[in-house]
Design goal:
Layout lengths: L9 E7 L3 H12 L7 E7 L6 H11 L3 E5 L5 H10 L5 E4 L4 E2 L4 H12 L3 E8 L4 H10 L2 H4 L3 H4 L4 E2 L4 E6 H7 L10 H11 L4 E11 L5 H21 L10 H17 L7 H17 L5 H4 L2 H17 L9
Parallel strand pairs: 1-2, 1-4, 2-3, 6-9
Antiparallel strand pairs: 4-8, 5-9, 6-8, 7-9
Helix pairs in contact: 1-2, 10-14, 11-12, 11-14, 12-14
């Protein structure tokens, strides 16, 4: 890749807030990378209630490769831009506080930037839980029924993609588009990759770049997460009309269908049961298939997990206001 040595210095940027439980593991996985070049970790820390700031400060004091950057707004794109601005390396690797990089991730990512000519490469969001609930969520997030057509959730053939999980970027490409759009609370990755592709840049999906992701620890947190996904996906679609994909419309149509069906039932129209019954049948069928690789106490949670993901995403999409995302 033009302008890069064989093993260029790499800046790994991450934004954290209330991540004390996973932060040490995530940063340790970065510092232990099998990479011949220099590594610099910039952690943007938002206001937290669980001691995340203290954990980050202790890691920075223990290793000069770690820099802590304040992120007073707590917003992800603001933190990412602040962390990027605090570094100077020609390659930027994005990591989440919930993510654990495999040992060869950075090395292979830099190789792929050179081999493909891409401005961003990324791989699979390998959801893995640490308890029964999280393992159920991880299974749902790794299935087409749960998350639709995104290859970065469950794999597929390598090649050009609309977006990828996290990302390994050329700094000059990020600079050219102005970095992350700070008006996006969610979906900022999709929106950024859309602008990169709009300038002729190649975004490359590589399934070998699998990153461990820790799911949300409760049904309530999962519901908020997917509600926000739905709201902000609609903002991206408003901002970039050519970004519409059919599978984004399935959850809101499902919510409307179930809502109309139940309303018909309330006024004495039994035909209204068709939509709720159809969704329930699809959910239970998918839960039976996905649950085959889980233990019984994990599999039994799948119908509720699927319903939470779908209905909250759909409701978020429907309730997304036009004022959302305005700078």
């Amino acid at each position: 890749m033009a302008g890069l040595s064989a093993w260029p210095p790499v800046a790994v940027v991450m934004v954290v807030r209330d991540e004390a439980m996973h932060l040490r593991e995530a940063v340790a996985a970065i510092l232990e990378q099998e990479y011949a070049g220099a590594l610099h970790v910039a952690v943007a820390v938002g206001p937290s209630r669980d001691g995340t700031e203290t954990v980050a400060a202790e890691m920075a004091a223990a290793d000069p490769r770690v820099t802590v950057v304040p992120n007073p707004t707590g917003r992800t794109p603001c933190g990412l831009n602040a962390a990027i601005a605090a570094t100077s390396e020609p390659v930027i690797v994005r990591v989440d506080g919930h993510a654990v990089l495999p040992p060869g991730y950075v090395r292979r990512g830099v190789e792929l930037l050179t081999e493909t000519g891409a401005v961003n490469v990324g791989g699979v969001m390998g959801a893995e839980g640490t308890n029964d609930f999280e393992r159920s969520v991880a299974a749902a997030m790794s299935s087409p029924f749960g998350v639709g057509g995104g290859r970065f959730h469950y794999g597929g053939q390598p090649g050009p993609a609309d977006t990828v999980y996290l990302g390994i970027f050329r700094r000059d490409a990020l600079d050219a588009v102005g970095g992350y759009d700070e008006s996006f609370t969610r979906a900022q990755d999709w929106e950024l990759n859309h602008r990169l592709r709009g300038r002729g840049g190649l975004v490359w999906f590589a399934p070998e770049l699998r990153v461990t992701y820790r799911p949300r620890p409760s049904l309530r947190a999962l519901g908020r997460q997917y509600r926000d996904y739905g709201r902000w996906r609609r903002v991206v679609m408003r901002r970039h009309s050519d970004s519409v994909r059919w599978h984004y419309l399935v959850p809101p149509v499902t919510v409307v269908g179930i809502g109309v069906g139940l309303a018909l039932v309330l006024v004495g129209q039994p035909v209204g049961w068709l939509a709720p019954a159809a969704y329930a049948a699809a959910n239970l069928g998918a839960s039976a298939v996905v649950g085959r690789r889980l233990r019984a106490r994990e599999a039994v949670r799948l119908p509720v997990v699927f319903a939470t993901m779908h209905l909250c995403w759909g409701w978020g999409f429907l309730s997304s206001t036009r004022g959302l995302g305005r700078a």
